[in-house]
Design brief:
Blueprint (H helix, E strand, L loop, with lengths): L9 H16 L30 E3 L5 E5 L8 H13 L6 E5 L16 H28 L7 E3 L2 E3 L5 E3 H5 L32 H6 L15 E4 L8 E5 L2 H4 L4 E7 L2 E6 L2 H13 L1 E4 L10 H7 L15
Parallel strand pairs: 2-3
Antiparallel strand pairs: 1-2, 4-5, 5-6, 7-10, 8-11, 9-10
Helix pairs in contact: 2-3
Amino acid sequence: MTPGPESPRRRQLLAAAGSLTVVCALKPAWAQDETPMNKGKLPGSLEKAPWLDAWIRIDADNRITVFTGKAELGQGIKTALLQVAAEELLVAPGRITLVTADTARTPNEGYTAGSHSMQDSGTALRHAAAQVRQILGELAAKRFGIGAPAVTVRDGVFQAPDGRRASYGELLAGQQLHLRCNPAIPVRTPEGHTVAGKPLQRIDIPAKVTGGPAYVQDLRLPNMVHGRVVRPPTPGARLLDVDTAAVAHLPGVLKVVRDGRFLAVIADGEYRAVKAAAALARATRWETPATLPADTRPAPMVRAWPAKPFPILERGMPG
């Protein structure tokens, strides 16, 4: 095929492709720091999720989101992890949105068990937040044209001695911190802590007091109904009769389900289903087989049962 006047030639195409590759590969200077030190073994859950943006996201509008793969089960880790992140990021805890145990968004930290949440997730967040703060401090110093030690920070805003200011969101300008965590970055010492280790109202308590959703069984869907099974009194019991009219008038009852020995009730609310199931159980007749002997003395009864000897260990023959 002979190229026409509008057709790109091979050399032009390769040159254009090469230039595009170079441009796409460029990253900010702080994102290119991949030293041997930060490629070693990482502390806590950073070993499983070593990238900073797996733990912390800062948007251009200064929203700060912190992620953990651990779940709040009443042990207070949401509050504790929030304090760890706020301490190292030097922001008020109220500035942070904490996302916990979301399989689509948070690092996979395995089970929440064995008192490992602070050891694993807390350690990871502490180091990640310390590095993010250092990166932002270097960006602020570069913007102000001064040395990093001259820059101060308060609640997510850096300030130069002459009064110039820059927030975390401004400095990152929407860029995400996709680089490996470096555990050599110094963390704040306990002597200087203003948030970690200080009294803070637990953020999980209000939902507990008001009955807020916490577990799978708390899930509520549109037009959702609830069912409860009426259990037989003994194994092998046969359902003889049930008076469905005894529960038909109860509030919220939608249907009584009977299928052989299976009996259940459906209602428009969980508590209504529980009450209806209890009423239905009282309106039910079962035939219960004699599953246990009348003799209440188990030891003689067991000894009287037919027995078959079963050797556990046999060595040689006597004599």
